[in-house]
Amino acid sequence: MKKIICTCFSTLSLLFFNSCATNPVTGKREVSLVSTDQEIAMGKQSDPEIINFFGLYKDAKLQSFITGKGKAMAAVSHRPNLAYEFKIVDSPVVNAFAVPGGYVYFTRGIMAHFNNEAEFAGVLGHEIGHVTARHSAQQQSKSMLAQIGLIGGMIAFPELGQLADAASQGVGLLFLKFGRDDERESDKLGVEYSTKIGYDAQQMAGFFNTLARQGQAQGGEEVPAFMSTHPQPEERNKTVAALAAEWKQKAGTTNLKVNRDSYLRMIDGLMYGEDPRQGFTENNVFYHPDLKFQFPVPVGWALQNTPQQVQMGPQDGSAMMMMTLGQGASLQAVAQTLVQNYKLSVVDAKSVTVNGLPAYAMVADQVPDAQQQQQQQTAPVRVLIYLIQYGGNIYNLMGVTTTANFNNYAPTFSATMQNFRQLTDTEKLRRQADHIRIKTVPTTGTLAQALRSYKMPDKRLEEISILNGMALTDQVTKGSLIKIVQK
């Protein structure tokens, strides 16, 4: 018999004491910097930050569904005593994720892509598995709770991230990457937990094929986050199918649920894709119909739009811009608050107008704190800020880069900020979101024929076939249900 030796130590760089803990799933002793109480505290801290970042998707029926299934599954998991919470966040991205302490989130994007309850149950079990096996806590231990940026700039130039409120402790947890062993373990737990509450776990593998097709359709650039470190779909299909057969035998039942029609009817009317009312990008211009403004986006820059801010940056991460609402009653008051909050030293400041709107512009340097000065590990940062008063709000547009790069990026920053203007285009002001609509197949034939019968445009047929988890050539029978996309 082997003895497990765990050495405890502390350094100034550690936030928690190193200690041994028993993994609830494997029963093995392992080194962990995060106790159960600390896991719970991390989850409680993260939850409001995540909700602020994404926003909740308000659908009482769907929320009741995921809460009910989540509680049932948590009860048969390896950690039934955690106070689990299950929520749908308002994001079109196809993703599900969990943070320590039992907080599990599904995007409305992934809810739109499930085609039965069993697929949902498999992913639900997978995410609960990350919690029960303490994967997030282990990753957090490895990273020493390092904050992770949302745009490449905060990774290539960490000093830029100090000015991005979204790169907070809680939201940073979402960007921890699990290794393939962790993902395989969560797949295994997903099969076990979903079978235990009566679902056919083989449906789980089929759903990951849907996600793989989606990633290929998007050129591999936007593979869902929980697919990025997973084993290949072919391997997963084989493994999950074998595990599902094994657990079906253990459960001693031949009547495991799929529940396709009930799920499809439940998501009828679910918002699909971006919500243009909250902002959208088209031809390198960002439009916000509800707030009635627009501004150009630099060519080649990635943009991320959340309820709290719009953030964008080049692929090499050498700069970033973000727009938030300023806090204060006047332009000068907002400017003073920014100087204090971000520890800025103003280089130049002046009152200006931007397309007829009152504005205040300033260039400032971020003053490093004592620790940064001592370590001398961060490059000096310079920012260009435009505060623009419009429609009862003060908009804070901030461009950030290193002092050495500032002259190169200042024209790019200025081109965006000085072209902030009122949105007057009627078509864009009236832009509405797409929604999932559940329809009955009128006659037996191919999926493509059924979609065309509901006037789906040819350019969207492949996209909608992926949404249905089918190929366009698959046969669908008269009277069966399919998804289409309409306003």
How would you describe what is shown here?
The protein has 18 helices and 21 strands. Strand 11 and strand 12 (319-325) form a beta hairpin. Strands 10-11-12-16-15-14-13 form a seven-stranded antiparallel β-sheet, with helices on both faces. With 487 residues, the chain is α+β, with helices and mostly antiparallel strands. It folds into three domains: 21-259, no CATH class; 276-429, Mog1/PsbP, alpha/beta/alpha sandwich (Protein Transport Mog1p, Chain A, 3-Layer(aba) Sandwich); 433-486. The protein starts with 18 loop residues before the first strand and ends with a strand. The chain is globular. Helix 2 crosses helix 4 (117-132) and helix 10 (203-217) packs antiparallel against helix 18 (461-467).
Short descriptors:
single chain, alpha+beta, 3 domains, 7-stranded antiparallel sheet, 18 helices, disordered N terminus
Sequence-ordered SSE layout with sheet pairings:
Elements (H helix, E strand, L loop, with lengths): L18 E4 L6 E4 L3 H19 L5 H16 L9 E5 L6 E4 L3 E5 H6 L3 H16 L2 H9 L8 H5 L1 H4 L7 H4 L7 H17 L6 H15 L15 H19 L8 H7 L4 E2 L7 E3 L2 E4 L4 E4 L5 E4 L4 E4 L5 E7 L5 H11 L2 E11 L2 E10 L3 H6 L5 E10 L2 E10 L3 H12 L3 E2 L3 H4 L4 E7 L4 E2 H7 L7 H7 L7 E2 L4 E6 L1
Parallel strand pairs: 3-5
Antiparallel strand pairs: 1-2, 4-5, 6-18, 7-8, 8-9, 9-17, 10-11, 11-12, 12-16, 13-14, 14-15, 15-16, 18-21, 19-20
